[in-house]
């Protein structure tokens, strides 16, 4: 069975500022099976949990700060409130990854976060951008160092579009990660440079048939995320759903 489709609610952050509940209800109406929250503008984790349950939306993962240091409990408590088992975050731009010492420090922080989360039955994942792939340290992209330095329990939320923008083959990366990539971020566009506008999934250059085939045995969720779009964002969110579900690449809740 193909994986269910969710929406990273960061996609609709502007609309959410003036009505979080209305945004979530509209996402459910489109047919998305789940949501991946990244904060709750004008709302709370407790209120969101009730809303998601009412609408039959699953929460496969949340985006939050890594659970370490002063932030140790914040993300853990949010995940537990929402009934989610996965906490996902990322770290800075390329200049935070441009030496081996920086990469080691970042991985130590992520590993500490994973250990903290594990005490509560939760797992921690890393969400990539392009800089982990186009930042070369000692002749290798930063992400290859990460594979060696991160605890095996840390998973990767592969942002398929950013991998391609970073100059790597998405299919190869997914195959390399295997079971460490249970959740894919799905976005589309020209994939030429980071600042280019994105488009509805299926309208850009990404080879979704090949990507989904490569991840068929390991992907548990497809999460649509559009950082920005030249067209109406609700239209792009709905069109992305129609493409993925219509092509049989993902499944909705209906």
Which features characterize this protein?
254 residues; alpha/beta; 8-stranded parallel sheet; two-stranded antiparallel ribbon; 11 helices
At the first level of CATH, the class is Alpha Beta
Portion of residues in beta strands equals: 5-15%
Overall tally of structural domains: 1
Main beta sheet strand tally, sense and closure: 8 strands, parallel
Helix/strand/pairing category:
alpha/beta
What is the number of E strands?
A: 10
Topology:
Layout: E1 5-8, H1 13-16, H2 20-30, E2 34-36, H3 45-55, E3 62-63, H4 72-82, E4 86-89, H5 100-118, E5 123-127, H6 131-134, E6 136-137, E7 140-141, H7 142-149, E8 155-159, H8 160-165, H9 170-177, E9 183-186, H10 208-215, E10 221-224, H11 233-246
Parallel strand pairs: 1-2, 1-10, 3-4, 4-5, 5-8, 8-9, 9-10
Antiparallel strand pairs: 6-7
Helix pairs in contact: 2-3, 5-7, 9-10
Fold and architecture overview:
The protein has helices spanning 13-16, 20-30, 45-55, 72-82, 100-118, 131-134, 142-149, 160-165, 170-177, 208-215, 233-246; strands spanning 5-8, 34-36, 62-63, 86-89, 123-127, 136-137, 140-141, 155-159, 183-186, 221-224. It has 254 residues and is α/β, with parallel strands linked by helices. The strands form 2 sheets. It has an 8-stranded parallel beta sheet. A two-stranded antiparallel ribbon has the order 6-7. Strand 6 (136-137) and strand 7 (140-141) form a beta hairpin. Helix 2 (20-30) runs parallel beside helix 3, helix 5 packs across helix 7 (142-149) and helix 9 (170-177) packs parallel to helix 10. The longest helix is centred in the middle third of the chain and has 19 residues, at 100-118. It is globular.
